[in-house]
Design goal:
The structure holds two protein chains of two kinds. Chain A is α+β, with helices and mostly antiparallel strands. Helices cover about 30% and strands about 20% of the residues of chain A. Chain B contains six helices and four strands, in the order ααβαβαββαα. The chains are: A alpha+beta, B alpha+beta. Chains A and B meet through α2 and β3 of A and α1, α3, β4 and α5 of B.
Amino acid sequence: MSNSPVGGGPVQQSITSKLADAFAPVALEVINESFMHSVPPGSESHFKVVVVSQQFADESLVKRHRMVHTALRSELDAGLHALSVEALTPEQWQARGGATLESPQCRGGSKSD
Amino acid sequence: MGILSRIKRRLPIVGGDREPRPSEAWTPPTSTRATSPAAEPPPPPPPPRTADEVRSEIEEDVKNHPIVLYMKGSERAPQCGFSAAVVDMLQQLAVPFETRDVIADPVLRQVIKDYSDWPTLPQLYLGGEFVGGCDIVREMHEQGELKKAVEGALQGA
């Protein structure tokens, strides 16, 4: 699904390694969705991450997302424009057949940033 | 391509969605730019509200309205796919809701992130409680949980 070569740019690599370190995920997808938005080709501004980890068991959705935000604090502070998060337990991931939801298309709001 | 247009093209990456801190908030320029002597000076913009003032506004807003969506753009003209998706889900539930446009209000845009301890927009509040962003709202909607939460917020109002 990724629009980038395996590994991607420096931001994508950094996100991937931080999530891998923080959550010991059984599945991890870091997708650069910047191409869907009004930014130049090759940008690393919009990401979607799918993290499947046992650590999310018994945690609320908000808490799961906050855990991901915390792991990616420096990327967010450095100006990551959009971060879509799916934080699932292995059971949820399996029940879903490993499918990833599609992100909505941009409506141009980032042009004004 | 001129330097200016190249810089403009780079702005979304370099600046990204990192919001100005309240201390860096826009203030009227002090330098006097060369203008036509005949031109009337434009009326000064209202001074930006302080972060504390905006924080109080948010507190009042989420207390007084059962459903408040902080978003990019308006309900009728969302300026971000994630904001549009949440508007769409709320409209599917056919419930009345309030929206606040953070693009029109740069101070709100920063303060709501601090207030909610949440780095992205949109942000949905139900019954005064922070619910989450687009991903969480969508997941709740797919599970049928959003309808229950929205109805609960409306009944509590």
